[in-house]
Amino acid sequence: MVVGREFKEPGGGHIDLSNGNPVVSAGQVKVVGGEIKFIDNSSGHFQPVGKGAQSSAENAFKQLGFDVQNKFIHKQWVLDPKLKNGGAWRPINND
User: Which of 3, 18, 32, 43 is the most buried (most CB within 10 A)?
Assistant: First the structure.
């Protein structure tokens, strides 16, 4: 597992963390005081989706001893030309 800080500058991100190699899962995680607040699948290049993306991310963090139960948020990229990046990752309502 490779974890890095959020890149605020253009050109940085998951692809840099993987050194261009294939990945099993990608997204964002928020850790506060050693506790995972959420994990998601929001990734610009890899765009992982579905249960496979979720289970890969959860298993990686579980192996490190983190509690990940009910912490995963499924997101999808929604186009919005009004936004700087042309869209944004939004939670998927799975109800």
Answer: 43
